[in-house]
Structures are given as C-alpha cells and as structure tokens.
C-alpha cells in the first residue's frame, strides 16, 4: 500500500494518586502514540484503549503496526479500521500531519471557528462520602464544574457530601452504568435538590430500553451507550445528551460527524476523554468548542503531562502553543 507511513509505541503515564470509578482504580494509564510521516513531516495522535471493550494498549499498538501505511484520504479509514482507539490515534495523527503539510490549522480544515478557552469539569473519584467531600472541598475553590463518579448504593449520600464540600460548584454525575436495576427516576429526583445538571450513563449499555417511560427531572447523557453514529437511533428518546469521546468514536473525523447528526436529532453534546495527556485531548478540544459540557481533564489527573500541552487555569483550558497539535 502506498500512502502515509505509520509508527506506534505504547507510553506509560502515572496517575496523580489514584483514579477510581465503579469498575476499579487506576494508578497509571498506558497510551498509544502514533506518528504519521510523509515527505519529511510527522503528525502525531494519541489514544487510550477502551478497557471496557477489552482493548489494551498493546493490542491497539499491534493493530497499527500491522497496518503500516494508510491512504492520504482520512475518510477511507472507516473501511480499514473499526471504531475505537486504534483508529482514533491514526485519524488524529493524519489531521496533525495535514495541518503541518498544508499550513492550514486543523480547526480551519474542520470548518470550525478559531478555538477559544473552554471550561472543563474536574473529576471527583469514587469513594466514601467523607473522602469525596474532602476532595470536593480541595477542588471546589479552583474548578467551577465538578464531575462525580458514582456506584449505585449510597450515591445520594455521596452527592450530598460533595455539595457540602463545594457549595458553589456546578455538578454533573457519572453513574458508570451502576443504576441498572435501580429506580432511575427516583434517583434523579433525589439529586435535584443538590443542583445536579446532568447524569451520565445510568444503565448498562445495551439495556437502554430500561429508560423507556422514565421521566427524569435532570437530563440523562449516553456515554457507553453511544460510541459512534450507529448508536444514535437507540439513544434518541431515552437520553437528552451524548458524551462524545474520540477513543470510542474512532477519531476526530467521526467525532465531528457524530456531533452534527446528534445536534440535528435534538441532542445536547458533551465532549469527554479517557485518561490521557494533552496530545490525547487536543483534537477533542476542537470538538469541545460546540459542546454544552466539557470533560477534558485527563491531563489534570496525571502526575505529569507532555511538554507544551494545555495550560489549565483552574478549569479553564487553552493550549500553551497553538501549534502543539493541528496548528
């Protein structure tokens, strides 16, 4: 195959402390760095394996390494790679390569306006109410939007504790599928008094029919239930928003298309990320320009980030260097 030559390698990044959700805790994240080279120019893309799909960084590295080369036309990637982290890394590397070769920034090529600073949520890891209250108290003064990881049993107490710790912060919660079998409408109603403005993924992906007939006073957002455009039909009428993560969707190309179709269907947009460095969230930052909720705190949750990445002033994020990716 002639075209763009690819190389890939796995990198390990320590987490600041531990990142805990209902499925377990992480002390590090392995990311895949893909470089796409042509005519002496190199574009970079980063992806994090979707662990709940059984992906590993080593597996997606093998996929990209075996591929070796890809065509110049990014739209052909859908015919070569399935959705997921491997395609995300390759797709974003191609966007970066195109920007460097053409001198036209990725945001302009995507038909977007000049990117501006956005406010990202900061994640409060799952824990007992006392621990989450303490974490919220530390974060609440710096971050205006907090995202709470929940687990099902005891969630109301967790949210109440976070509200005590951060009385002025905006709150969104992520049930991570843990409300399957629970009364979603009752759980949501109990959270209204705490000012929660969004509930992510209350039920298991594939069991979204459990939301039929549910009238939630707080908007519900599909995360695991919405990977790419093929999932939109089952989300409409059950969720009010979708969380677009490029690792799920398979890159910025699909992410932009998914956002356009979701808006046309009347759904709100949230843009999120896996644990990742600034290189991993840089393409999503472009997509975040048109999102109601932004959750791109992956680099903030690491012990260190890539040089020249994003500058975070509390929850406000902007690149240190406009040319860091796709510039």
Automatic annotation (TrEMBL):
<dbReference type="InterPro" id="IPR029017">
    <property type="entry name" value="Enolase-like_N"/>
</dbReference>
<feature type="active site" description="Proton acceptor; specific for (S)-substrate epimerization">
    <location>
        <position position="245"/>
    </location>
</feature>
<feature type="domain" description="Mandelate racemase/muconate lactonizing enzyme C-terminal">
    <location>
        <begin position="129"/>
        <end position="221"/>
    </location>
</feature>
<comment type="similarity">
    <text>Belongs to the mandelate racemase/muconate lactonizing enzyme family.</text>
</comment>
<dbReference type="GO" id="GO:0006518">
    <property type="term" value="P:peptide metabolic process"/>
</dbReference>
<dbReference type="InterPro" id="IPR034603">
    <property type="entry name" value="Dipeptide_epimerase"/>
</dbReference>
<feature type="binding site">
    <location>
        <position position="174"/>
    </location>
    <ligand>
        <name>Mg(2+)</name>
    </ligand>
</feature>
<dbReference type="Pfam" id="PF13378">
    <property type="entry name" value="MR_MLE_C"/>
</dbReference>
<dbReference type="GO" id="GO:0046872">
    <property type="term" value="F:metal ion binding"/>
</dbReference>
<dbReference type="InterPro" id="IPR036849">
    <property type="entry name" value="Enolase-like_C_sf"/>
</dbReference>
<feature type="active site" description="Proton acceptor; specific for (R)-substrate epimerization">
    <location>
        <position position="149"/>
    </location>
</feature>
<keyword id="KW-0479">Metal-binding</keyword>
<dbReference type="GO" id="GO:0016855">
    <property type="term" value="F:racemase and epimerase activity, acting on amino acids and derivatives"/>
</dbReference>
<keyword id="KW-0413">Isomerase</keyword>
<dbReference type="InterPro" id="IPR013342">
    <property type="entry name" value="Mandelate_racemase_C"/>
</dbReference>
<dbReference type="InterPro" id="IPR029065">
    <property type="entry name" value="Enolase_C-like"/>
</dbReference>
<dbReference type="Pfam" id="PF02746">
    <property type="entry name" value="MR_MLE_N"/>
</dbReference>
<feature type="binding site">
    <location>
        <position position="223"/>
    </location>
    <ligand>
        <name>Mg(2+)</name>
    </ligand>
</feature>
<feature type="binding site">
    <location>
        <position position="200"/>
    </location>
    <ligand>
        <name>Mg(2+)</name>
    </ligand>
</feature>
<dbReference type="InterPro" id="IPR013341">
    <property type="entry name" value="Mandelate_racemase_N_dom"/>
</dbReference>
<keyword id="KW-0460">Magnesium</keyword>
<protein>
    <recommendedName>
        <fullName>Dipeptide epimerase</fullName>
        <ecNumber>5.1.1.-</ecNumber>
    </recommendedName>
</protein>
